[in-house]
Amino acid sequence: MEFIDVILSRKSVRSFSEEEIPENVLNEMLEAARLSPSSQNRQCWRFIVVQNKETRERLALKSGLIGKVNFFIKDAPVIIVACADPSKSVKLNKQNYYLVDIAIAFQQMMLAAWNHGVGSCWLAAFDEQKVKDILNIPDNIRVVAMSPFGYPKEKASLYDKALKTFAGSKKRLDLNKIIMWEKWGKY
Ligand SMILES: Cc1cc2nc3c(=O)[nH]c(=O)nc-3n(C[C@H](O)[C@H](O)[C@H](O)COP(=O)(O)O)c2cc1C
């Protein structure tokens, strides 16, 4: 795909076919994350690639912030958990840049995936401690995000459609509401 088409067509995917992701595509996704910029190039990210069916099911059904809210990720052939070691990142202006480092790298991974038709959905609605217990993640590491990766089902599930409507996923603020020119307040 043209780069701009990757951006224009990307959307969160919440219903997956069980088709495997080819190794070269998975490797390209991981490489896209590895090459991301990070604060002081400290690369505080660590990614756990989960392909084991049982572990995927545990993440999907037993790590939700509320109940089984993430049940839909169990069908995806791969779940990637994006972790950070905050001690390897930078704190400036009272901002924890490990969150930024992870966000950039994970988004690069998601865009690289979508370039090959592999969908994803950023997830924050998980119980961090439960994810840590399932994957043996040490206390000093933060779990920033996770996402299923897989090919979208031809027909999106009802849940997928309902959530998109609930989240208003197609809406974006107009440029004239978010861009200011030269100074704060000059839209
Ligand atoms: C930081 C972050 C957290 C999110 N958490 C969840 C989540 O827990 N569950 C979910 O289904 N979608 C989650 N999303 C996906 C958003 O709902 C989605 O990106 C938004 O509605 C825009 O839709 P689009 O991605 O299809 O363009 C999250 C997205 C971001 C960036």
Itemize the secondary structure elements and their pairings.
Elements: H1 3-9, H2 23-34, E1 45-50, H3 53-62, E2 78-84, E3 91-92, E4 95-96, H4 97-114, E5 119-120, H5 128-135, E6 142-150, H6 158-167, H7 175-178
Antiparallel strand pairs: 1-2, 2-6, 3-4, 5-6
Helix pairs in contact: 2-4, 3-5
Describe this structure in words.
The chain has 187 residues and is α+β, with helices and mostly antiparallel strands. It has one domain (3-178): NADH Oxidase (3-Layer(aba) Sandwich), CATH 3.40.109. Helix content is 37%, strand content 15%. It has a four-stranded antiparallel sheet with strand order 1-2-6-5, with helices on both faces. It has a two-stranded antiparallel ribbon with strand order 3-4. Helix 2 (23-34) runs antiparallel to helix 4 (97-114) and helix 3 (53-62) runs antiparallel to helix 5. The radius of gyration is 17 Å and the shape is globular. It starts with a helix and ends in a 9-residue tail after the last helix. The mean pLDDT is 96. Residues 11-12, 14, 121-125, 163, 167, 169 line the site of flavin mononucleotide (FMN).
